[in-house]
Each structure stands twice: as C-alpha cells, then as structure tokens.
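Contributing new records

If you add data, match the layout below exactly. Sequence lines come first and carry their own label; structure lines follow with theirs. Keep one chain per record. Anything else will be rejected by the validation script.
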Amino acid sequence: MSITDVTSSTPAAFGASAKPAPAKGPDAATSGTAPPTIGRNGTVDTVSLSPDAVRAMKAGVISFAVPKASDAAERDPVAAGMDAVLARRDYDLKQADYMREAMGMLRQTLNLPEDQPIVLGGAAHGLLDKLAAKNGLSKPELPDALRAAGVKDPFAEDADAEAGVIGVGMPNSGKELQVVFDRLGLAGRSAKTDNPLRMIALKDGSDHSGPLLGAIKGGMLGRLTDTRPDQGASLWAVTDGGEGPNARVLASVRSVGMDDTATDMAAGLLKGLKGLFAGP
C-alpha cells in the first residue's frame, strides 16, 4: 500500500483559529486506559478501556451478585466472593501475559522498535486478538466466577467497532503519531487496486480542509480523532485516492512533533493494518 502526500509541505499547526469541537462520544472523552503493559525493555504500551471498566477499576473493588440457592445446596456468599476475587487475580495475570506477547507480535508485524510505546483503541483490539490467534496465542477465557459476578471482557465490545486507533510515540520526547482508521473501509480495499491512498494536509483556509475535516468530525473517525485547536498538532485526511469533497476518508493522521516522518510512518501502519484485515 502506498500513500501519496499531495501537500508537498508540512502543514501548519492545525485549527489555530478554530473553535473547540464538542466531545463526540465516550471513546475519547470518557474511556480510560488499562494498567500499562511493560515490555522487555521497559516500554509502556497502553490500551483503552470502556467507561464501565474504568469505573470498576477506579472503585478498586469487585461487586458480585450472589447466586440464588439451588434445590440441592445453598451457596455460601463469602465463598462466592472469595471465588470471584481469586478468579479475578488469576485472570488479570493471564491477561497481562497475553497482552505482553500479543503486543510483541504487533510490533514485529508493524516493524515498530521495542522502545516505541504503542496506544490501541476501538477496533484495533480486534486486530490484536486476530493477530494473536493467527500465531497460536490463545486469549484467556473469562472465568465462570467472574461471569456470574457480571464481569465482562473490557475489550470485547470495542473489537467490532467501526473505527480504531493506533498510536506510536517517541520515548521521553512528547512526540506522537496517531492513525484513526475506518475498519470496514480499510478492509474493503482490494489488495490489487492500483489507486494509492492519498494523504491530504488539513490547513486553515485550504479548499480541501473544510469538506474533509467535516467528513472526519461527522463520521465514525470523529469519535477517536482529536481535532481540538491549540494543541500544536498537525492533521491529515487519508482518502481512497480522491481529493474533492466526495472523496472517501479512510483514516485520519494526527502528528505532534513528527511531521517530517508522518507520511512514511502512516503508510507503514496502514499497510500493516490492511495486511491484518486480509489475513485468514
């Protein structure tokens, strides 16, 4: 997959004179992050959590419903509570090991160095699970004790989301690059297509910026794309090859301090993601 940058220049800081956009949904505004996954070299990777999972983690307790007594025997509520606590501890340890191994596979697939932090959100979780399964790594099953207590897999709902985000950062620099992608749009592109994706810088006053930015904000990408002004960030729209107002936006790219490598890095990430979509 190739990307053509039609701007031929680095965009200015995006939205310097724009008004702040209202929050689009819970994904970016209210979702949190799971405890970071620490890689072999101390790299911190981050994954997003649903609002319910965030509230549960902040509470620091496990709430559970005691099953009703059966005809055969009564269930000890204290024992049920201990079962849930022990099951949660065991599940969290297995989940942490799974995420560490799966993230390592993702780094290898996307050609990312081990010292480069990764952030995942939305449909990216489903791709991570797909990659892990393809390489023989099984995702831990939620124990029955936790299911009975009403606990859910915090990433299951996001796995089939319409949009996902993958971000990479430069250690100890504050620099970052985020790619928000249309899951179905990216998966639907033919591997044999000759039309390269087109990456268009969104600048204040540009003829292309208004319609393309509107498509990002008003579509599925808007829930995960940070379009706030005065953040020192540059923003691009990645289209199916078109430039006009009818071009289909397949991804957005946001850069803070990484404008010089944004095009090449975004192309690499999108190529790797498309390869995961195309896999068995």
